[in-house]
Amino acid sequence: MVAKKTGTAEKPEPVPQARAGAEALAVRPGEDPWTEAEAEEARAGLRADAERIRAEIDASGQALAGLMRDSGGGAGDDEADTGTKNITREHELSLAANAREMLRQTEQALVRLDEGTYGSCENCGNAIGKARLQAFPRATLCVDCKQKQERRG
């Protein structure tokens, strides 16, 4: 009886993890694992971003309060003045909403960093890439998934 050779499919290379003692953060093949210092640098940068964004949200809230207070008078305003005030108010509301979303993303990145899931694509589970995260620390998708998302949207 002759044993048949079965074809063995190549298994995908596992995503390398950080060294023991360092946080187990995903990296792409060929990248050096995250060190404790790099993880802490990312954490400190995200915390600083969160504080900066909170200050922007506070300033925007104060600006909006002033715009709302000033919009009540309107006596003597022509249509152009009223339109300008409305556009300015809408612009401030948009900036505040964007800042709140960026703060949410920043806080989520900090949670992922603390949980050890920072660096894993939320869509496919592959590594996002250390260089990408160092350039854009709030990234949640690998380059491939982000490109697919942008093509669809």
UniProtKB/TrEMBL annotation:
User: Zinc finger spans (dksA C4-type)?
Assistant: 121-145
The record's section on Pfam families has:
zf-dskA_traR (PF01258)
Molecular function (GO) terms listed? zinc ion binding
Residue ranges of domain Zinc finger DksA/TraR C4-type in the record: 116-151
Write the record's keywords in alphabetical order, separated by commas: Metal-binding, Zinc, Zinc-finger
The superkingdom listed in its UniProt entry is: Bacteria
Q: Which Gene3D superfamilies match?
A: DksA, coiled-coil domain
Q: Where is this region: Disordered?
A: 1-45, 66-87
What the entry lists under InterPro entries is as follows:
DnaK_N, Znf_DskA_TraR, Znf_DskA_TraR_CS
- Keyword Zinc-finger: yes or no? yes
Name the UniProt record assigns to this protein: TraR/DksA family transcriptional regulator
